[in-house]
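About this split. The held-out portion is used to measure sequence recovery: a designer receives only the structure tokens and must propose an amino acid at every position. Recovery is the fraction of positions where the proposal matches the reference. Here is one held-out target exactly as it appears in the evaluation file.
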């Protein structure tokens, strides 16, 4: 065993496994516990149950420092610091479901020696409630900011590390700070409630930026401006910044939709009406549906039209379908009577069963065969390398709606496509028949 502090991880999902792999890479002994036996068995065989670039390799390179178990006692015996990385999905009320967090806390009831480090995204006030129930427990809030698809890079190169501990647990906070120090990044030491709010506010603000630029895009379409140019010009102002100003067909994933709603509900539960977040959510919902209008503008009724979706995952480099725009879009298209065919290089398997009677194609070109239009839903890198001239020749009508403003309009135009992005003027080689 190394001299470094052993680390316990509870919950072997995206955040938990990345945390486990990265701390093992830094030389720590790590015990990761998950309640799902099949997941633990798969990890023991070196298999991942989801797609995250580089993660399987990092786990295998550090195999000798990693133990996977279903037994919480293995974690408690080995590590003082327990990183809680269980999921907190939305409930029917829109509040975060804390049942998995609570069951971990129940496991610690009789224990006074451990530090609970909360990485799961929880409503502000959760730390205080847990400490009221378990006064002896040292509690640190250390929210995670990693993004799917670049999770390892994000974990290993944090811009900031937030460590929230109240005065009586300052030493526990120091232990967590020590663990993260080799990674660099600004260290933000704060109280627990503020750390919890930093996470929720960060996600809500990023989501607000996206909905804002999507509304700007919609206005750009009305006035003949190009949202890409507008975002560039705005983003050069350091007070605004260029990130998260990519207009498209809305944000999805396991965090933004859930956390924006959870913050709205959290505020509402205290009697405060967080008006801005209502608009962020509504803009995002409508943005996914605008694509249907764009298709109808070109094709008229969609009844019997064959529409191809390129990409299904909520963003590239992940197989995560949670709150993916493709779910709403494919349902709306089927609702309008269209025949929908889709291709995603990684998410297709997980998407089956979520998309109604959508036909899955084996390749991008296969999806486009005979299609009346194609919608680029997820900006997988391989789509930019597609032979678009060949694609145009295979389609019934060469019409492309670029839901992520990802492809080069000139290339598409030269290939014979009518191209329409989000917040841009339509470029057309010839009228769609
Ligand atoms: C997000 C946060 O970025 C991360 O800090 C937090 O820990 C978890 O939630 P993630 O959900 O992995 O990460 O994806 P992210 O890259 O942030 O994208 C979220 C969604 O917003 C995607 O659907 C993406 O397509 C969309 N998006 C992002 C835009 O539409 N425009 C942008 O400019 C950026």
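Reference sequence for scoring:
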């Amino acid at each position: 065993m190394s001299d470094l502090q052993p680390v316990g991880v509870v919950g072997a999902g995206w955040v938990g496994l990345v945390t486990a792999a990265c701390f093992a890479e830094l030389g720590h002994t790590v015990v990761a516990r998950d309640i799902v036996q099949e997941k633990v068995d798969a990890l023991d065989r070196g298999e991942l149950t989801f797609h995250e670039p580089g993660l399987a390799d990092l786990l295998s390179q550090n195999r000798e420092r990693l133990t996977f178990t279903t037994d919480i006692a293995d974690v408690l015996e080995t590590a003082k610091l327990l990183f809680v990385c269980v999921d907190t999905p939305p409930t029917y009320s829109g509040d975060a479901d804390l049942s998995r967090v609570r069951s971990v806390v129940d496991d610690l009831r009789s224990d006074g020696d451990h530090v609970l480090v909360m990485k799961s995204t929880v409503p502000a006030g959760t730390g205080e409630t847990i400490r009221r129930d378990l006064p002896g427990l040292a509690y640190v809030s250390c929210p995670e900011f990693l993004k799917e698809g670049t999770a390892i890079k994000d974990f290993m190169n944090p811009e900031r590390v937030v460590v929230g501990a109240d005065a009586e647990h300052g030493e526990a906070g120091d232990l967590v700070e020590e663990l993260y120090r080799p990674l660099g990044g600004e260290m933000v030491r704060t109280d627990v409630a503020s750390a919890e709010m930093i996470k929720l506010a960060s996600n809500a603000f990023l989501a607000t930026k996206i909905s804002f630029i999507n509304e700007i895009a919609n206005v750009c379409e009305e006035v003949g401006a190009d949202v890409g140019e507008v975002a560039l010009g705005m983003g050069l102002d350091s007070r605004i910044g260029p990130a998260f100003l990519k207009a498209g067909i809305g944000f999805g994933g396991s965090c933004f939709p859930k956390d924006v709603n959870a913050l709205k509900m959290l505020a509402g539960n205290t009697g405060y009406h967080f008006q801005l977040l209502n608009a962020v959510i509504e803009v995002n919902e409508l943005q996914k549906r605008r694509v249907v209008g764009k298709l109808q503008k070109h094709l008229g009724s969609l009844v019997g039209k064959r529409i191809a979706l390129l990409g299904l995952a909520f963003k590239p480099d992940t197989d995560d379908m949670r709150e993916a725009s493709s779910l709403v879009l494919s349902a709306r298209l089927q609702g309008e009577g269209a025949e929908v065919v889709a291709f995603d290089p990684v998410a297709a398997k997980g998407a089956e069963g979520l998309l109604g009677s959508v036909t899955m194609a084996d390749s991008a070109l296969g999806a486009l065969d005979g299609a009346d239009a194609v919608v680029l839903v997820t900006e997988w890198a391989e789509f930019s390398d597609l032979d678009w001239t060949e694609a145009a020749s295979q389609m019934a009508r060469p019409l492309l709606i670029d839901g992520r403003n990802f492809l080069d309009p000139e290339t598409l135009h030269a290939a014979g496509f009518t191209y329409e992005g989000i917040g841009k003027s339509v470029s057309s080689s010839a009228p769609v028949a």
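Annotator remark: DSSP finds 17 helices and 15 strands in the chain.
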